[in-house]
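Hi everyone, sorry if this is the wrong subforum. Our group has a chain we'd like a structural model of before ordering constructs, and none of us has done structure prediction before. Sequence below.
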Amino acid sequence: MLQTQRTMNPEAIRIHEFVPISGSEIGRVLIVPSGNVGPMDQGGFESELYERLAGRLVSSGMITVRFDVESDRPRGGVSIPARRANRTRRLSEILEHEAIAARSSPLILLGVSLGALSIVDVLRRPTSLNICAAVLLGCVIEEPSVVMPPVERIDFLYGARDLVGYCNSDGELSEVVGPDTYGPRSAQQLIVRPRTVVTTRIIEGVGHMLARPGAHAPDDDTLDVIVDLTKQSAFPPSAPAAQ
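Answer:
Right subforum, don't worry. Here is the predicted structure as tokens:
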């Protein structure tokens, strides 16, 4: 595969674009990382996850874009809503960059956790970008969200072991639910056009980052599920997928 790298200013945002070496791409994907990856060039299992995922997507024939940003976790901490708003702002800036905006081919947004929520926030606004689909990993939506772009489909993907706890007014844990409960509930929060397909899928035996117990990142089988789901999003319901 061919790789190009660009840096956005004034903020330090580094964009990596991976293009199939065959030149016969079937779609474009932008990987939006979770809130756990911040500093540029930060290592660790999650950065490795996005590198492996990008490699598989490119091998399947998809132009793939991923990015690194400076940390949004200042000393003293910051609230989740503030981090979400910051991530959404940065994602909006990246979507306006020439690496994304200059191409007219359909774009799939693939987000993980907080990155998936920032995609939901971006989809609340009108855009001239040709966004055809979104793949949301570990995404829990608590409030109604109107999807403005005419996307073809939105897919939610969860690990069966990814449990979410809710507290009562006293701040005490009162309920713990799994994706079989909060997954469909999240999907129902989306207000979409009649033709938009919204699906939920749960992978048994894996947790929030779709890793199995004792592992730090998804195994090859789970990555294949993510890639297959993303490839499905590259084709509208009326179009056959490439073999």
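For your construct planning: Residues 100 and 107 are 8 Å apart (CA to CA). The two ends are 19 Å apart (CA to CA).
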